[in-house]
Backbone:
């Protein structure tokens, strides 16, 4: 499974000592909790609550960066930045991009599972 | 096994950090989504290292660290705080609150392992050193302060010598020692110090055996030469313990030598003043005076307890230290007991 622009596995490989099954389990867990956090972000956005949007984006950014989910990290960082500056107008579009990035990540993890296990 | 506490509201982070901890030798992790429950757990479980996220909805990492540091025995546990950005101001606050180091997300596993391992080694070494220092201190204290059984035997033998030669003197010494013990207790000296004073005071007047009976028991006013002969009993008593180096015998010598020193410097043999007089000797001075006043002497009758206390009260601040006189006053029950056990015999004169 080669690293891609979506997922950088180098750190997880170090953390899990190349245990593919462990890495995949963690990634699937990240996808599941990630979906919850995206929902939280979207409802905060619907309420126009910039602070909550920033906090949710910050959380997503942190755990996404830890697992090497590059695209999710990048987009959530942008959302956090804009929400902290109280600029929610572009965030709706970014949230859609974020969901897209998660979909790509999900596909990448699926491919990884098919290849490795 | 070294416990590593991991606190993060994101479960994937927890799972990841916990996995990295498995790579550290002799370490196991305890993961918490809730910082509050982590704090409760920390109250009853020993922890070798803490890894805590900063941005958590329930409580910030900085607040967690502050609360953690308040827990008994957790003030020096190393804490690594994880932040999403290298925010300088936040880190400064975190350090002031007790953070030991930082990692930035994405957390580099190798960096984390190295940091965690070093912190745990240092922490354990520090703990061991503290325990060792503590043991050494206890050991030294025991060595310094244990009342040697052989020394006590020697004091008992000397006591018997006194009894054979002068029963009233021996009884006076016993009363003095028991009253000194009561005073030392009231002064809240350590149990060991109390034991030492009580044992050493039993021979505080032994030097009187070197004073001629006709001078010691003279029913009339003493000449200057006779007074000097009586006063020499202090140095004579101390001389018996010359070159003895065990704590109890050194103290016995101190007490014998200095129990006639006065708080204002007007006593003998050295005219020592205030705290220059060993505490044990200051205590025995008051006990000795009380025992002597409540016993009959060739020149006068025994004083009642009340009158003897009043007499000593008059010497407070000049002859005697006031807090010691206060402690004597508080010792009424012990005094009654001592007088019952060792009643003053009628003077032989």
Residues:
């Amino acid at each position: 499974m080669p690293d891609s622009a979506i997922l950088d596995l180098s750190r997880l490989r170090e953390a899990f000592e190349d245990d593919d099954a462990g890495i995949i389990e963690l990634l699937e867990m990240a996808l599941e909790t990630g979906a919850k956090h995206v929902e939280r972000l979207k409802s905060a956005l619907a309420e126009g609550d910039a602070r909550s949007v920033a906090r949710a984006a910050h959380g997503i950014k942190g755990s996404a960066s830890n697992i090497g989910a590059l695209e999710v990290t990048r987009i959530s960082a942008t959302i956090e930045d804009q929400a902290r500056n109280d600029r929610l107008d572009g965030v709706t579009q970014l949230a859609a991009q974020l969901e897209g990035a998660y979909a790509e990540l999900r596909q990448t993890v699926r491919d990884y599972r098919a290849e490795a296990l | 096994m070294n416990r590593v506490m991991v606190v993060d509201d994101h479960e994937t982070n927890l799972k990841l950090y916990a996995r990295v901890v498995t790579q550290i030798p002799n370490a196991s992790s305890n993961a918490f989504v809730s910082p509050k429950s982590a704090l409760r757990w920390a109250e009853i479980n020993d922890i070798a290292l803490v890894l805590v996220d900063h941005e958590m909805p329930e409580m910030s990492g900085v607040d967690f660290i502050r609360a953690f540091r308040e827990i008994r025995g957790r003030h020096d546990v190393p804490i690594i705080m994880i932040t999403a950005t290298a925010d300088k101001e936040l880190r400064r606050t975190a350090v002031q609150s007790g953070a030991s180091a930082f990692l930035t997300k994405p957390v580099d596993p190798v960096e984390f392992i190295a940091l965690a391992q070093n912190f745990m080694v240092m922490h354990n070494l520090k703990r061991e050193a503290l325990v060792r220092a503590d043991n050494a201190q206890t050991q030294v204290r025991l060595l310094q302060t244990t009342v040697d059984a052989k020394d006590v035997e020697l004091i008992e033998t000397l006591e018997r010598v006194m009894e054979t030669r002068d029963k009233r003197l021996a009884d006076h010494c016993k009363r003095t020692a028991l009253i000194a013990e009561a005073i030392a207790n009231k002064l809240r000296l350590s149990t060991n110090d109390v034991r030492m004073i009580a044992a050493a005071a039993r021979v505080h007047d032994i030097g009187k055996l070197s004073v001629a009976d006709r001078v010691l028991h003279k029913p009339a006013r003493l000449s200057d030469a006779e007074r000097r002969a009586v006063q020499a009993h202090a140095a004579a008593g101390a001389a018996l313990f010359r070159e003895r180096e065990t704590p109890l015998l050194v103290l016995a010598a101190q007490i014998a030598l200095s129990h006639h020193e006065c708080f204002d410097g007007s006593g003998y043999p050295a005219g020592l003043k205030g705290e220059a007089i060993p505490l044990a000797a200051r205590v025995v001075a008051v006990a000795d005076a009380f025992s002597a006043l409540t016993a009959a002497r060739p020149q006068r009758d025994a004083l009642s307890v009340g009158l003897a206390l009043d007499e000593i009260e008059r010497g407070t601040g000049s002859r005697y230290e006031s807090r010691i006189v206060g402690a004597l006053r508080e010792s009424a029950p012990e005094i009654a007991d001592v007088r019952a056990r060792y009643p003053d015999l009628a003077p032989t004169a």
About this structure: The interface with chain B takes residues 11-12, 14-17, 22, 26, 29-30, 33, 55, 58-59, 61-63, 65-68 of chain A (CB under 8 Å). Residues 20-46 of chain A form the longest helix (27 residues). Chain A is about 80% helix and 0% strand. The two ends of chain A are 11 Å apart (CA to CA).
